[in-house]
């Protein structure tokens, strides 16, 4: 782990920097280290970056859902006494941010990158051969435009998770919840500013998903990153960070 994890009560989280808070929500199997470049950049720009460890593997099986994680997020924000903030989510994390907005609507802005919520191709699937390291390696590589981004460390992490039967059951339950909690009918009612940053080569949540988010969200801005897959903040961190910094500066902090 590249950052120190703070543990308080039921919460584990990273907190770095001082200034306006950005709360980052990781994906279904997204390690917190996936956001290292984002964290390092924004803490140097007078932002506070906060990233809770989402209890995907700790919830009771009947409560392993997008809704329960949104409720967990609200409790965490109350625990931290955060009043104004932007939420940023990748993959399942974006979906949690959307559901949080639906039921609590407390964020000043929302950032979606490779977010689920409209289309869940491959979430939790493809693990019938989970004991085959090469199969898992190829599945992880498919997340990125450039396969080299899927380092051995990253592949090892995913391999370990999917070969833990208890964790795999929770992953499959969460994937089913993501499909159940489709956000299409809710998005037109979300009036907050939304920044949609998408890889043009995302084959997990394809480009048409970003177009649909942009179409349905009434106050959204859509930005594309070339030669980029499902995790822009990992593949093109400099481009991603600059887009996000300019958007927050103009759409959130200037208000």
Pattern of helices and strands: EEEHEHEHEHHHEHEHH
Number of strands: 8
Number of domains: 1
Number of helices: 9
Strand content: 15-25%
Major sheet details: 8 strands, mixed
CATH homology-level superfamily = Alpha/Beta hydrolase fold, catalytic domain
What are the low-pLDDT stretches, counting only 5+ consecutive residues below 50?
A: none
Principal-axes shape call: globular
Distance between the termini: 36 Å
The CATH class is identified as: Alpha Beta
Our Rg estimate from Cα atoms comes to 17 Å
* Portion of residues within helices: 25-40%
- Average pLDDT works out at 93
Which strand order spans the largest sheet, edge to edge or round the barrel? 1-2-4-3-5-6-7-8
Provide the CATH architecture.
3-Layer(aba) Sandwich
Structural class: alpha/beta
CATH topology: Rossmann fold
Structure description:
The chain has one domain: Alpha/Beta hydrolase fold, catalytic domain (Rossmann fold). Helix 1 links the parallel strand 3 and strand 4. It has 255 residues and is of the alpha/beta class. It starts with 5 loop residues before the first strand and ends with a helix. Helices cover 39% and strands 17% of the residues. It is globular, with a radius of gyration of 17 Å. Strands 1-2-4-3-5-6-7-8 form an 8-stranded mixed sheet, sandwiched between helices. Helix 4 crosses helix 5.
């Amino acid at each position: 782990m590249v950052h120190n994890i703070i543990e308080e009560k039921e919460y584990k989280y990273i907190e770095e920097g001082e200034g306006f808070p950005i709360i980052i929500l990781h994906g279904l199997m997204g390690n917190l280290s996936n956001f290292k470049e984002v964290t390092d950049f924004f803490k140097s720009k007078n932002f506070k970056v906060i990233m809770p460890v989402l209890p995907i593997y700790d919830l009771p099986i009947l409560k392993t859902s997008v809704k329960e994680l949104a409720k967990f997020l609200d409790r965490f924000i109350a625990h931290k006494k955060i009043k104004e903030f932007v939420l940023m989510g990748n993959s399942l994390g974006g979906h949690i941010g959307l559901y949080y907005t639906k039921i609590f609507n407390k964020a000043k802005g929302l950032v979606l990158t490779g977010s689920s919520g409209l289309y869940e191709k491959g979430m939790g699937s493809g693990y019938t051969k989970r004991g085959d390291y090469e199969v898992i390696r190829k599945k992880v590589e498919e997340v990125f435009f450039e396969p080299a981004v899927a380092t051995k460390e990253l592949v090892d992490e995913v391999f370990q998770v999917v070969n833990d039967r208890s964790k795999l059951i929770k992953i499959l339950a969460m994937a089913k919840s993501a499909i159940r909690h489709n956000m299409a009918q809710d998005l037109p009612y979300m009036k907050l500013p939304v920044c949609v940053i998408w890889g043009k080569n995302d084959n997990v949540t394809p480009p048409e998903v970003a177009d649909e988010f942009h179409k349905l969200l009434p106050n959204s801005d859509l930005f594309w990153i070339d030669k980029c897959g499902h995790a822009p903040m990992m593949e093109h961190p400099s481009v991603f960070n600059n887009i996000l910094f300019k958007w927050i500066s103009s759409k959130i902090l200037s208000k």
